[in-house]
Amino acid sequence: MQSLANHFLIAMPNLQDPMFKRSVTYICEHNEEGAMGLIVNHPIDVTVGELLDQIEIDNDKDSSAADQTVFAGGPVHTDRGFVLHTPKIGYASSKELSSDIMITTSKDVLASLTYHDSPDAFIITLGYSGWEKGQLEQEILENSWLIIQADPEIIFSTPPEKRWEKAVSMLGIDISQLSNQAGHA
């Protein structure tokens, strides 16, 4: 299977695991060893400003960025934060995932998020989603996921509660026509 990096995994309606139900997961890395991704549409009850306070990083409480919601990125290492952001010159600690999306765990980037030198758009997730060798491929064969090329607009510009529907609509599928049953033709 070719790499699914820079793709979305869209949970099928039959996927009932509370962490992944109606999730959109951005795949950051996928190779023969496994895959790593971040759920981009499951907000938690923590703002960026509150998170930065908890990890003792100064932030501008009056900025709109401080009021943004943090997301549950997945069930693995929920104590680790990940920042997906639009490209920004000078962020040497960020890794380019596509021409429109970068990722970092760096504190210097976190420290800039509520100030004028921040990226144009970003989201923070706590935790990530991980798959061991062959696990994701098996879940795809079991019809747990729909797959599409990632669209930064869904991550950075679409309200979280609309991301799943918007991702599905990119496939040209009427979500009400998807079955809750898994199977093969």
TrEMBL record:
The name this protein goes by in its record: UPF0301 protein QNM18_26120
Organism field: Pseudoalteromonas obscura
Xref: SUPFAM superfamilies: VC0467-like
InterPro entries recorded: AlgH-like (IPR003774)
Gene3D superfamilies, per database record: VC0467-like
Similarity remark: Belongs to the UPF0301 (AlgH) family.
